Automatic annotation (TrEMBL):
InterPro entries: Flagellar_biosynth_FliO (IPR022781), FliO/MopB (IPR052205). Keywords: Bacterial flagellum, Cell membrane, Cell projection, Cilium, Flagellum, Membrane, Transmembrane, Transmembrane helix. It comes from Curtobacterium pusillum. This is Flagellar biosynthetic protein FliO. The chain crosses the membrane at residues 6-24. It holds the Pfam family FliO. Belongs to the FliO/MopB family. Its main location: other. It is found in: Bacterial flagellum basal body; Cell membrane. GO terms for cellular component: bacterial-type flagellum basal body; plasma membrane. One of its GO terms (biological process) is bacterial-type flagellum organization. It comes from the Bacteria.
């Protein structure tokens, strides 16, 4: 009896903690404090344009940050700004005429009706050598034996019928007494 009460208390406490964590997560996500989009200077996008190794642990990296192109020297001792300048504008494709989109022809209702009648009129047939039974399991796999747990193995677990009977009896005794 005491074990059941303790188990129910632990389950209830765990449920309350999980619900509280879920509510706090939702509230933090809505307010933008946790995991949402960063605001201010931290929201700058950094795009690595190119990277060239010049030694064992040294390289030159070209990055675009907020419309500015930076050339950085990176080594195991640190990162140094080599030069900076205005990032080039992205290349745009200019369309000077009307654009033709591909159009699939839609089948007419008559063509659909004819196809439907043709399919429903056909009789299903099996090849003559299909009289023998087909295998029901994929090849190259062993048949797996299904082992059912015994009552002794399930004793005390939530899967045991005796556990559920004891829980129901405990609830009945609590209501009556």
């Amino acid at each position: 009896m005491d074990t059941l009460v303790i188990t129910l208390r632990v389950a209830l406490s765990l449920g309350v903690v999980l619900a509280l964590m879920w509510v706090l997560h939702r509230r933090m996500a809505k307010s933008g404090l946790g995991g949402g989009k960063a605001k201010g200077r931290r929201s700058a996008t950094v795009e690595v344009v190119a990277r060239q190794a010049i030694g064992g642990k040294a390289s030159v990296v070209v990055v675009d940050v907020e419309g500015e192109r930076l050339v950085l020297g990176v080594s195991e001792h640190g990162v140094n700004l080599l030069t900076s300048g205005q990032a080039p504008a992205p290349e745009l494709t200019i369309v000077t005429g009307p654009v033709q989109l591909p159009v699939r022809p839609t089948p007419s209702a008559d063509a659909f009706r004819q196809e439907l009648e043709q399919q429903t009129g056909a009789e299903p047939s099996l090849p003559s050598d299909a009289a023998e039974a087909l295998p029901m399991r994929p090849r190259n796999r062993r048949a797996q034996r299904a082992t059912l747990p015994t009552a002794q193995q399930l004793q005390g677990s939530i899967l045991s019928a005796d556990t559920w009977r004891q829980a129901a009896a405990a609830l009945r005794n609590r209501r009556v007494g």
